[in-house]
Write a structure and sequence with these properties.
By secondary structure, this protein is mainly α. Helix content is 60%, strand content 0%. The protein has one domain. It binds zinc ion (ZN).
């Protein structure tokens, strides 16, 4: 890897980390048909898609390497609201208007954060790379 590639991968990593930390709260954007503390943006779906995309090339892998730990940190932060009421509980809107209870929300966020953390580990160490390529693309 020459200095140019190192610079670009560094920028992509920092960009991934910056976006990953705040991405989940995109559910606060008014035009989106989801509600805050959305299961779609606070769950395993985005990390899984990114983890799959990370096998598509070096830049995707570095983006994911930045994005996934920041995403996990965001979810861990969300695991400790002042109260488990209203928007603190995970919503499955528009699939259903039902919100998970406090304990279920906590476990959902914890599981999703753990998954994103595990994916970071697999990207950083290269372990399970064949598994990712075989099952996700
Ligand atoms: Zn959040």
């Amino acid at each position: 890897m020459d200095w140019k590639e190192m610079f670009i991968t560094g920028v992509v990593f920092v960009l991934g980390f910056s976006i990953g930390g705040t991405f989940s709260d995109i559910d606060l954007a008014p035009p989106l048909p989801i509600r805050h503390r959305s299961a779609w943006t606070h769950g395993p779906f985005i990390p899984l898609a990114l983890w799959a995309a990370s096998s598509g090339g070096l830049w995707w892998a570095y983006f994911a390497l930045g994005f996934l730990p920041a995403y996990a940190i965001h979810l861990i932060y969300d695991m400790f609201p002042k109260k488990w009421t209203g928007g603190a509980r995970v919503s499955w809107y528009p699939l259903t208007g039902w919100r998970m209870g406090g304990l279920l929300s906590f476990l959902f966020l914890a599981g999703s954060a753990a998954l994103a953390g595990w994916m970071t580990y697999t990207l950083a160490t290269g372990e399970f790379a064949n598994l990712r390529i075989a099952f996700l693309g």
